[in-house]
Amino acid sequence: MADSFKGSVMKKKFFDMLAKSIGAQVVVERAAGLDGEQIDMFRGRLISFNPDTMDIWLADVMDKDGMIIAKEMMINGETIISMRTIPPVLDLKDLASKLKKAGLEARVDDEEGAVDVGKKALIYRSGQVVTTNDKLRTKLEKVLDAAYDESLERVRALPAILANSSA
């Protein structure tokens, strides 16, 4: 019974993490060809998944060369080798501005490639927060999450913006 409980907890955590990735940019590697030895790579926005079959649905799908190959595409879960999310790129100047609006002293440190928050913390472009102050870390992570959400919305809007500009 303990194993089935552990398995169900792990399954729930897995699906929770996958559900949180809905809307995110992902890179998917898929086995292809008759023998499954060929590997196809796709990049797109995860818009849905089937928890029973692990099939996924991508939007604005690009091939490994960055060419848009489909508006939407379903990938069979049995062929997926790996899937990884691509974090939005942080604009350090924008992040420093958001931190200032949150009442924190912040400046971009180009040499470090990070935002220096009152000489008490650094936030790197990767999203890593370095500080020993847990209360400050919590506040910084809230601002960082909001910046990521905003960045993700810009990424989601990009295909529509590109479509309108070419029309």
Give an overview in words.
- This protein has 167 residues and is an alpha+beta fold.
- The protein has 2 domains: 2-86, SH3 type barrels (Roll); 92-166.
- Helices cover 37% and strands 34% of the residues.
- It contains 3 helices and 9 strands; from the N terminus they run αβββββαββββα.
- The chain has helices at 2-20, 92-101, 134-166; strands spanning 25-32, 38-49, 56-62, 68-75, 80-86, 106-109, 114-117, 121-124, 129-130.
- The strands form 2 sheets. It has a 5-stranded antiparallel beta sheet, covered by helices on one side.
- Strand 1 (25-32) and strand 2 (38-49) form a beta hairpin.
- 16% of the residues are buried.
What descriptive keywords fit this protein?
single chain, 167 residues, alpha+beta, SH3 type barrels, 2 domains, 5-stranded antiparallel β-sheet, 4-stranded antiparallel β-sheet, 3 helices, 37% helix
> What is the β-strand count?
9
Count of individual helical segments: 3
CATH architecture of the largest domain: Roll
In total, the number of domains comes to: 2
